[in-house]
Amino acid sequence: MTAEHGGAPYLKRMKITSFGAFANKVVGPFTPHLNVVFGENEAGKSTLASFAGGVLFGWEEARGVRNTYKPRNADRAGSLFFAPRPEEGDSLQGENADASAAASASEPGVLASGSVSESENELVLSRVRNADGLQGPVELVDDIDRETFQTMFSLTADELRSLRNTTDMTAKLLTAGSGTGASPAHALAEVQDRLAEYTSKAAGIEHSIARLTAEQDDLRAQMAAAADETERYKAQDKEFHELAPQRAQLLARLDALNASIEELAAQRASLEKLDAQRDQLRRQRDSLREDEAALAAEHRVREQTSDPALVALGAADERALRDRIDALAEEQAKCAHSVDLAKENCSTSTAAYEALLETEDVHQVHEGRRRQRSVQVGLSIALPLVFVAAGVPLFMHGREITSLSFTALGIGLVVFSLMLAAAALVMLFRPDKAAEALEVRKQDAQWVMLQDKKKLEACLSAQEQLAARIRSQLDAVGLSAAQGSLRSARSLLAEAKDARAETGLFQQRQQALASRLSSVEDNLADVERQRARAVERAGLRDGASVEDVDAAIEQRTRQRVGLLETSESLNRRYGELKQELSQAKHAHRFDELKLRYQQVRTRQDESAQDYARLLLAKRMLEAAIAAWESKSQPEVYRQASRLLSLMTDGRWVKVVMTPEGRLQVMDAVKTEREPVHLSLGTCQQLYLALRIALLMTADNVGRSVPILADDILVNFDARRRIGAALALAELSRTRQVILFTCHEEIVESMRSVDPALNVVEL
């Protein structure tokens, strides 16, 4: 628990006797810090928020079709239970007790119907009919009215779209939160009423100056005695009022110096950022120029290794040239095939001929034939001789013995031998057909071999002629580097095509580098312009550095220190005069002693002095209110600026009020906008930040009244919702905050910024 709470009670429970759809229902407990009432649609969250405002400031009257939550058969009635805020050491114990009470209820966070018990130290505010008024310790809400509650304490998504009577509401809250026992604004109204009584001529007002003027003749002498005292007071009052403009002037100069220092600090940060961007852009520019030069050098090297004529070929010319090369390649392939075939045929015929001429085989054939003929000759000679040798003796022996059989046999053998000799002679001189066939084969093989050799020579000659023709044609079309090789010609064409592609790629890369370089140079020029504007806004010479801004900040800081010393001196004298004049208000005991002798004189003097005191009090209150507003209102907008920056993640950083009384916001790059030009979510964040800042600045106004927020975060994105949750958590450190929602993600966002979040479920 922080000291800012001041020990003011906080709302602990709501008891709804009858209101809308609720009857005899108790909701709570709530903690003095951050609370979330979570329930589905139509669970009664808006009903609870309207119920709390109705109890405090009266039920709404039925107007048009507006829902006033009036039950059909009963009057609206209910109570709010306020408990003293626990001390810092007792905070945990009190919150644990509240959590235990919530856990023991029939529903999580909602007490069972009629199950509330009043402790001795609880304060109860209740209302039945508006005519009966608020019952209980009404001093809890004495310092705010219904309009202030609805504008500042009861927040809805629609309410966050504007802040009606911004200036009046700010003055009302700030003067009410000045730290006095009663609001200076209320005190000023009372002083004015009393001043009206002193100038009134109505009967029954005994201290009326108008009535006492009739007795001034009797009191003239006594008034002369008090003239010196009055003059002294007048002189002091004059000096007192002359100090007020001087103090205001000093404050204005201090504000101007503060604004100038803030502006210089902002421009210093901008210059640092712009200098870093400028250095980076310059490095990028130099790098791009180096890349451009390197690319051009590389392209020149590649151009030197490529044939310009081939690189300059068009697509149609290249296709025609490739077609001619393909045709020549096809012709070359055919010619090579013919040569290969001729070589193969020649090799085959030569091998066949050489096979017939192999020496070992011919000798073997001839030797076999020679042995066969020798055998034949030998047999053709030997056998007839044998038969003759056998037949002649046998014939002779038969003649000798006159044996017919032997003689016939001898003759037969001789005849047979003659027949064998004749047969041998026939076989001996008969031609050899196998030898003749072999010779014919040898001649045929030789003829075929000679034909194949001639054909091979013709094919080789044709191949040489084709090679010469190919080389001449390639030389004619600029492919002399191929030296008659179609493969080399194709390679050259491919290299030329690659060179053209590389040329195109070079042009694209060159254009890309030129575009990037142009963009970098444009950005660099833009950064230079922004830097010049920043230097101009800082009020420095062109080309000023960050060190120059630091020197200017230091100079203005010294000026501010001097003004602060002068302001403190004036404030001391102002306080002395204020104390003397305050004492003068009560310096009437001596007059009372004198007025005992002369009642009329006493009444006249008292009336005159009271009137003078009231006039002085009026002026003092007016000056005090003006001084308080001039001191507190900047704090409000400073807090609002900080909270808006927190909610928008640094997108909008400042909230100001123009001299014409119009609200404006400024983003991180000093762009000013009016609320009407903001998006719905940003507009709601602006007015939420302004309300939280007002409530935090005037933290002793409505200290016991909770902040009721009905689904005010629904139009915020996830990141800005976290910022708003942080702002509400910060507000909950000085005031009780109750957020109504039906979105689980909002509950998780609130719990992420406040782990001690109290969740009441409907």
From TrEMBL:
Which UniProt keywords are given for this protein, alphabetically ordered? Answer: ATP-binding, Coiled coil, Membrane, Nucleotide-binding, Transmembrane, Transmembrane helix
Q: Mark the transmembrane ranges.
A: 377-396, 408-429
**Pfam families linked to this entry:** AAA_27
Q: Residue limits of the YhaN AAA domain?
A: 11-62
Renumbered residue ranges of the record's region Disordered = 80-116
What GO terms are given for molecular function? ATP binding
Any coiled-coil regions, as ranges: 195-298, 510-537
Which segments show compositional bias classed as Low complexity? 97-106
Q: What is this protein called?
A: Sugar ABC transporter ATP-binding protein
Q: What species was this sequence derived from?
A: Gordonibacter urolithinfaciens
